[in-house]
């Protein structure tokens, strides 16, 4: 039995008692109780169940046990961020100078433009352009305008990007350069910096895209923010937006800049 069970590899989390996990699975099979209601003496987390899954499948395929079905992992849906909460977070990011500039810029892009962190790390400084006095960020087509507070942050950040003083990275074009030569930051590293600020990336993206499809036709949002047309349309329908019957076509208008959070001076 032991060769078919995962071993502790030193780094990361350690597997708990395999005996407790297997006994828990057998107890559930015998009694029919829900996985979440197993007695505390059994190890029954999703991770624990997955740790012995290969062994259990091996037993089943070799007819060493009765037929059984492992319960699927429970998907926990995160709490949605309200528009008011989103705007409050943006206001803090725009005005709190004690926060790291790189983290602020990344978090604002998530909250303003509903971008996943995996896409943030692929942005380059060439995606930031100016048109007269307007700063634009190219996420799709056409480029999206940056509201004044964010435009100031973005330009300041570009002028002082981190990881640019190493001998191998002086000419990096990445908006978020990594420590390795020619490479951007890893998405997990950038995501961790955003979370330190208390910004929930998934909930923040969700709140941003819902607001965009309420204010602008879904096909326009999809093109400008690089969302799939079907996804944007579905989100617009769910949000109850007035643009559900808007026909896609050659649209040149970018999603309007979100209303800028007011500061004490405004």
Keywords:
266 residues, mainly alpha, three-stranded antiparallel beta sheet, 44% helix, 4% strand, disordered C terminus
Map the helices and strands:
Elements: H1 18-31, H2 46-61, H3 83-95, H4 101-113, H5 117-120, E1 128-131, E2 134-137, E3 144-145, H6 148-159, H7 187-196, H8 201-215, H9 218-225, H10 229-239
Antiparallel strand pairs: 1-2, 2-3
Descriptive overview:
The chain has a 3-stranded antiparallel beta sheet with strand order 1-2-3, with no helix packed on it. The termini are far apart. It is extended. It has helices at residues 18-31, 46-61, 83-95, 101-113, 117-120, 148-159, 187-196, 201-215, 218-225, 229-239, and strands at residues 128-131, 134-137, 144-145. The protein has 266 residues and is mainly alpha-helical. 28% of the residues are buried. Helix 8 (201-215) packs across helix 10. Strand 1 and strand 2 (134-137) form a beta hairpin. It is built from 10 helices and 3 strands; from the N terminus they run αααααβββααααα. The longest helix has 16 residues, at 46-61.
Largest sheet: 3 strands, antiparallel
How many helical elements?
10
- Calculate the mean pLDDT score and round it: 77
Summing up helix and strand content along with how strands pair, one would put the structural category as mainly alpha
> Helical amount among residues, as a percent range?
40-55%
Strand content: under 5%
Tell me the distance between the termini: 69 Å
**Strand arrangement, major sheet:** 1-2-3
Inertia-based shape: extended
Number of strands: 3
Sequence stretches where pLDDT stays below 50 over 5 or more residues: 9-15, 259-266
């Amino acid at each position: 039995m032991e060769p078919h069970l995962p071993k502790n590899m030193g780094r990361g989390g350690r597997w708990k008692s395999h005996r407790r996990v297997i006994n828990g699975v057998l107890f559930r099979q015998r009694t029919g109780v829900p996985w979440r209601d197993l007695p505390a003496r059994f190890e029954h987390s999703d991770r624990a169940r997955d740790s012995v899954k290969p062994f259990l499948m091996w037993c089943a395929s070799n007819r060493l046990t009765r037929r059984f079905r492992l319960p699927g992992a429970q998907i926990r849906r995160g709490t949605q961020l309200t528009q008011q909460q989103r705007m409050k977070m943006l206001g803090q990011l725009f005005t709190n100078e004690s926060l790291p500039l790189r983290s602020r810029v990344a978090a604002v892009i998530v909250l303003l433009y509903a971008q996943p962190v995996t896409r943030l790390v692929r942005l380059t400084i060439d995606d930031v352009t100016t048109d007269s006095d307007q700063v634009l960020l190219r996420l799709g087509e056409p480029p999206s305008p940056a509201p004044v507070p964010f435009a100031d942050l973005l330009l300041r950040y570009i002028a002082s990007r981190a990881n640019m003083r190493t001998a191998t990275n002086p000419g990096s074009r990445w908006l978020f350069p990594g420590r390795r030569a020619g490479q951007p930051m890893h998405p997990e590293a950038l995501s961790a910096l955003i979370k330190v600020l208390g910004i929930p990336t998934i909930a923040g993206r969700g709140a941003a895209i819902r607001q965009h499809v309420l204010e602008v036709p879904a096909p326009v949002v999809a093109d400008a923010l690089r969302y799939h047309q079907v996804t944007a349309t579905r989100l617009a329908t769910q949000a109850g937006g007035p643009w559900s019957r808007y026909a896609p076509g050659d649209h040149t208008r970018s999603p309007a800049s979100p209303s800028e959070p007011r500061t004490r001076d405004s």
